[in-house]
Amino acid sequence: MKSPTLLSLGYMFLVLLFFQQAWAQFPRECATIEALRNGVCCPDLSPLSGPGSDRCGFSSGRGRCEVVIADSRPHSHHYPHDGRDDREAWPTRFFNRTCRCSGNFSGHNCGTCRPGWGGAACDQRVLTVRRNLLDLSTEEKNRFVQALDMAKHTTHPQFVIATRRSEEILGPDGNTPQFENISIYNYFVWTHYYSVKKTFLGAGQESFGEVDFSHEGPAFLTWHRYHLLQLERDIQEMLQDPSFSLPYWNFATGKNTCDICTDDLMGSRSNFDSTLISPNSVFSQWRVVCESLEDYDTLGTLCN
């Protein structure tokens, strides 16, 4: 087990709610043989009359199950491998019908609210105050670090991760969906990995990595902001505390030093091994995920 040399609080590509249509990777209810074979990811919200009776919260007007309308515009010449990557026209390699939520409703089954809204009808404004990490009190810093550590060790209640590409998603026997549980924080890491991973072109061929789907484009800033917003929402639900917010770090204040790399925050450098975090930091006990990138690119497997 290795200790992490860097803790990143950044990113997301696939848990985006574009045009009020919920596209998430992968809702637990949709990681089934039936959903994958039918291409339908429209989970029930309150199925009082049996399975399929309240897809996307339709009975309460929260949303409806609709055909996915993916962006069909061609890629530029920088990406010459159209049709070779599961992320193209997301999520149509897996599902062609998903939930489209109405108004301020959101989520893979329209069971939550859009960011900034709350209440049973998602009609109440919710203000989240984002503070400078260095301005937090000792108690507030402790609560923040404890929340991250809890997220690292708490299984995500809504989403699972795919461990194989779409053509292998049902397993060798065609009846065993290739998904695994993942913790809330590791899901945050995994979605970033999935968004930037190279395009697998087949066994014996070098994977294509000339285009970074998350960083080399106009969505760079909003993409990362939404990724952080999703982590914040997941931690709020984990803590049952809608007031929880991720603080920000103004890295310019430390100039040439990392002023949050202390044992009460993100961890100082170990005195025994300069590549590791101090054993006095809770983060020194974290296991690193998604680090075997060469294996993933060579074998066509996914981080798990």
From TrEMBL:
Pathway(s) annotated for this protein in UniProt: Pigment biosynthesis; melanin biosynthesis
Top-level taxon of the source organism: Eukaryota
Keyword Oxidoreductase in annotation: yes
GO biological process, one term: melanocyte differentiation
PROSITE patterns in the record: TYROSINASE_1
Reactions the enzyme catalyzes: 2 5,6-dihydroxyindole-2-carboxylate + O2 = 2 indole-5,6-quinone-2-carboxylate + 2 H2O
Gene3D superfamilies in UniProt: Di-copper center containing domain from catechol oxidase
Any Gene Ontology CC annotation: melanosome membrane
Membrane topology label: Single-pass type I membrane protein
Signal peptide as annotated in the record: 1-24
Main location: membrane
Location of the protein in the cell: Melanosome membrane
Boundaries of every Tyrosinase copper-binding domain copy: 215-232
Cofactor(s) of this protein: Cu(2+); Zn(2+)
Keyword terms of this UniProt record: Copper, Disulfide bond, Glycoprotein, Melanin biosynthesis, Membrane, Metal-binding, Monooxygenase, Oxidoreductase, Signal, Transmembrane, Transmembrane helix, Zinc
InterPro entries assigned to the protein according to its UniProt record, in alphabetical order: Di-copper_centre_dom_sf (IPR008922), Tyrosinase/Hemocyanin (IPR050316), Tyrosinase_Cu-bd (IPR002227)
A GO molecular function held by the record: metal ion binding
A Pfam family reported for this protein in Swiss-Prot or TrEMBL: Tyrosinase
PANTHER family assigned: 5,6-DIHYDROXYINDOLE-2-CARBOXYLIC ACID OXIDASE, TYROSINASE FAMILY MEMBER
Family: Belongs to the tyrosinase family.
Name of protein: 5,6-dihydroxyindole-2-carboxylic acid oxidase
Lineage: Eukaryota, Metazoa, Chordata, Craniata, Vertebrata
Gene from which the chain derives: TYRP1
